[in-house]
Amino acid sequence: MSVSEIDTDYLVVGGGATAMAFVDTLLTETDARIAIVDRRHRPGGHWNDAYPFVRLHQPSATYGVNSRELGSWTKDEAGLNAGFYGLASGLEVLNHFDQVMRERFLPSGRVRWLPMSEYREGPGGTHEITSLASGDVAQIVVRKKLVNATHAQTAVPSTHPPKYAVAPGVNCIPPNRLPEIRRPHPAYTVVGSGKTGMDTCL
Ligand SMILES: Cc1cc2nc3c(=O)[nH]c(=O)nc-3n(C[C@H](O)[C@H](O)[C@H](O)COP(=O)(O)OP(=O)(O)OC[C@H]3O[C@@H](n4cnc5c(N)ncnc54)[C@H](O)[C@@H]3O)c2cc1C
Known about the structure:
alpha/beta, 18% helix
């Protein structure tokens, strides 16, 4: 395990939608150098865990970063959303953030992307990141600001066991596993009536 030092103006913790939009604007409006750290292997935050049939619930062009449009303001011609502006799939959202990272952030020479790394505050208010792959530790010298883009604390059902008891004999699965169904069940009960529950019913 080695210890190195990284010098940056902004250290952004989290590589989800919030962080990506913030860094995109920093690149446009400042000359700052930015380091982004995330424990995941690619940008997009919770979209990496989402069920495979997830879509945005608003027109694609209203989501993502400012410098690059996600979607093209075209209206769907078929399906449940016919007549309305297209809703990007989870894969399209992930692809958007991946392209922004590869085609804008990294070529700018001002962004350092540190995936699969855990941030923690070190002793005396210092900043430490640990590579989840190698265990190597880097001390980050932050010239301007630490930006915590993890407040959403988003967690989808596939990432943890249910927070309620499940009776023996009940087959309880997260929405991520619905596409694996090969035999119809006589009945389904959906726990939760938010966006994920609605998507599951549809
Ligand atoms: C299924 C689902 C569908 C949604 N659909 C929509 C939609 O259609 N439209 C909409 O506007 N919103 C939607 N949302 C809301 C969504 O939460 C926001 O749009 C947005 O994606 C949140 O992004 P975020 O960057 O704030 O958080 P996150 O995506 O949670 O990203 C935070 C990141 O921080 C990282 N992290 C946390 N702590 C550390 C640490 N100590 N060290 C390193 N990394 C760390 C995590 O690994 C994570 O990648 C949806 C949410 C869910 C769950």
